[in-house]
Amino acid sequence: EDGSREEYQFADPDALLEGIRDEDWNSYEIVAVGPYIQLKINDVLMTEVIDRDEDMSREDGVIGLQLHMGPPMQVHFRDLKIKILD
Q: Of 72, 11, 62, 4, which is closest to residue 32 (Cα–Cα)?
């Protein structure tokens, strides 16, 4: 609630990266329900977040697709779908 952060490693990072296909399409799934956010690549859980920061978390807003800092890269997106859960 106060914005402090706790991190726990739930899998070996190198093992997670083995499931990512270089030079090919990967599926990327984001589930966001309330403060709970889950990210999967090719059906493999990569991260989970519970965001209870009262000052910075939002229940609605803009959806953005993020690139990570690093060497120059090219990223393509296709077949984007948004499903609103009731």
A: 62
Average pLDDT in the chain: 86
Residue for token digits 């914005």?
3
DSSP H or E segment with residue 49: strand 44-50
Instruction: List all residues 6 or more positions away from 75 whose beta carbon is below 8 Å from its beta carbon.
Output: 67
Q: Tokens 């190198």 map to which residue?
A: 14
Residue 21, both tokens: 């296909």
Question: For the whole prediction, is pTM greater than 0.85?
Answer: no
CA quadruple 68, 66, 75, 9: dihedral positive or negative? positive
Listed in order, strand segments (DSSP E) in 1-86 are 28-33, 36-41, 44-50
